[in-house]
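S.,

Sequence below, as promised.
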Amino acid sequence: MRILLVGAGGVGTAITRIAARRSFFDYLVVSDYDLARAQAAVAALGAEETRFSARRVDASDQAAVTALLAEERCDVLLNATDPRFVMPLFEAALAAGAHYLDMAMSLSSPHPERPYEECGTKLGDGQFDRAAAWAEAGRLALVGVGVEPGLSDVFARYAAEELFDGIEEIGVRDGANLTVEGYDFAPSFSIWTTIEECLNPPVVWEKERGWYTTAPFSEPEVFDFPEGIGPVECVNVEHEEVLLIPRWVDAKRVTFKYGLGDEFIETLKTLHRLGLDRTGKVSVGGVEVAPRDVVAACLPDPATLGDRMRGKTCAGTWVKGVKDGAPREVYLYHVVDNEWSMAEYGSQAVVWQTAINPVVALELVAGGVWSGAGVLGPEAFDPRPFLDLLNDYGSPWGLREQ
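The prediction came back faster than expected:
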């Protein structure tokens, strides 16, 4: 397998460090708009690692990405950019006859009249609209295969197959006790993506109603996270799992809630009030800039925060239902300690936790364990090989009876 990785930021760099320890692929091209960043990711692997090379590419230039895929004879494109670039990369892979994987799906847009009640364009709609073309081409677009979405979806399918006879609710719950020394506000993941997720209307799925939306930060609840993280208040946030899980897993309700904290929520609300969350460009001193890009430029790069971070992050899927006629609740989870990920891989916990899952998925695809054509989510596949391989990578997952 020859892989084109697009994006050499925190997640992309972590992907190279994880993949370098595996033997399932022949060659991996690390590409980025900033060639120096791609070169740094490759150089960090050491001179003895000859399966990697660096190239420059503009992720928004579909034709250039298609040409690079052909030039490097790549079988698959792995997208490690932010969601703005999903569609050009997705289409470039199809045009080049390559498979495609991403960790976030095509962007949504709110309903024009009833944004907090009805869905407008949903996350992933742009990709699912092209499913027939991918199926006809005999190529696989494996979408949403990071940690959330990704591992959380695998957990949902595993619960449905092995732990429950009937499911009332699947709720993805994400929380952490991470702190960043020296900063009053320093998100551990892309602020561009965080704003998109948190300020858009959250989507909920109910079997009798379908997909609908609520107000941002709605339905707060306190969830007790494992391995010493403890209770964290979580709120509804727009996320791909709610759009993916109901397509393949039978449940009466699907939700996603994220542990943000009051200070984080208030900061996001302030950005929104000031219009600093907007992606449309404004003129500043004769220069056209997007306010959200300015916010991102003013904050520290999450990839550089590992040495200042302390604590753990937890991603997981809570499932409530019935097994053998009795009520059951479980929480399937994956915890990463920042001290461990920094010592072992030199990557901070949040980006490392995101990065490991597409590498696991690529290994399953390379070995023919996961195969298919069309636009498919992680829950469309057998979950057990993924979870077994995750353990083999030295990153075990857990299950807690609630």
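The chain has a mean pLDDT of 95.

Coffee later?
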